[in-house]
Amino acid sequence: MFSAILSACGKEKTANSSGQKVLRIGYQKNCPLVILKERGTLEKALKKYGYKVKWIQFQAGPELLEALNAGSIDFGRTGDSPPIFAQASGSSLVYVAAGISKYKGSGILVKKNSGINKLSDLKGKKIGFAKGSSSHFLLIKALEKAGLSINDIKPAYLQPGDARAAFEKGAIDAWVVWDPYTADAQRLPNTKLLVNGAGLTSDRDFFVASSSFAHAHSDILKIVLNEVQQSSDWANHHHKETADMLSPLLGIDKQSLMIALNRRTYGVQKISNNIVKEQQDIANTFYKLKIIPKKVTIKNNIYNIYKGNGKDDRK
């Protein structure tokens, strides 16, 4: 059990002269850390170590990672693609844990009457997606499967809110996105999920920290990840309560959130060799297509705060 591994904390000293320490956590509204934040359990767990928690919200992963590199936050969570761009820009971030694959909630949405019934039908179509995101990679792999490339479609670089509006108005022919936006859009009239991420991408979260904080305070990170796992276990067994919690925060109705929750498992994993390979494949793909300016070696930024090689890779 992963949580059992997490329970053993290190022996490092985290005290400073002021006696009051602050753990600065970067989060996005739609991420596992929101559940942890709303439940308030981390504050209780860290109080006896003299820590208080400061939560800082970001609109997107790249902004969060810029703050991490600048020393404005200590720890955060992003999707799989932003850390690769950060590494390519010279960030010293370290990956400390991964989330469980959530490919079922990521996919390509089209209108039922669009005439797009298979991946090859995307040729020549205008497709909305967030540049440099997990959806960007999903689209690349989906096109490859159909014998196409990104040059065979008309890309529209749009964040989820703008893409949703464009999709509803018919300004784009297809929309590539992740849950709960996928689930919410699936409930629109005349909308269907062409494909999800099965066989194309793992689409997992990554928990990252500044290199300096990870090396100095691995004991605190173990406590944080243990609390993430505990809140994840709660969410996995309390879908209705989780939907009630997230709905007002995300502005998405509970029915859509229930669809998303029913096809996702929250949790924390050690970063195995398989997970490193998954992430390296994304980095290699982005470099090959000149989306990032230089090669990135994922393993150079892995910080294993646990004993052993971290071969747990449960789905």
UniProtKB/TrEMBL annotation:
InterPro entries: ABC_SsuA_sub-bd, Solute-binding_3/MltF_N, SsuA/THI5. Residues 22-238 form the Solute-binding protein family 3/N-terminal domain. One of its GO terms (cellular component) is periplasmic space. Pfam families: NMT1. GO terms for molecular function: ATPase-coupled transmembrane transporter activity. Keywords: Lipoprotein, Palmitate, Signal, Transport. The keyword Cytoplasm does not apply. SMART domains: PBPb. It comes from the Bacteria. It is found in: Periplasm. Belongs to the bacterial solute-binding protein SsuA/TauA family. Part of a binding-protein-dependent transport system for aliphatic sulfonates. Putative binding protein. This is Putative aliphatic sulfonates-binding protein.
